[in-house]
Amino acid sequence: MTDHAVPLSVSRITAIWRDLNDRYFGGALPPIAVVWSRRLTASVGMFVSRAGPRSAWRENTSAKSREIRLSLPLLAPLLADTPYGTQELVSTLAHEMIHQWQFDVLKRRPNHGPDFLRKMTEMNRDGALAVTIYHSLKQEVLSLSRFAWRCGRCGRIYRRQRRTIQPRHHHCGSCRGALHEMSSSEAGQPSSNDTDRLKPSTASIQPAPQLELDFSSASL
Question: Which of 59, 96, 122, 140 is catalytic?
Answer without folding.
Answer: 96
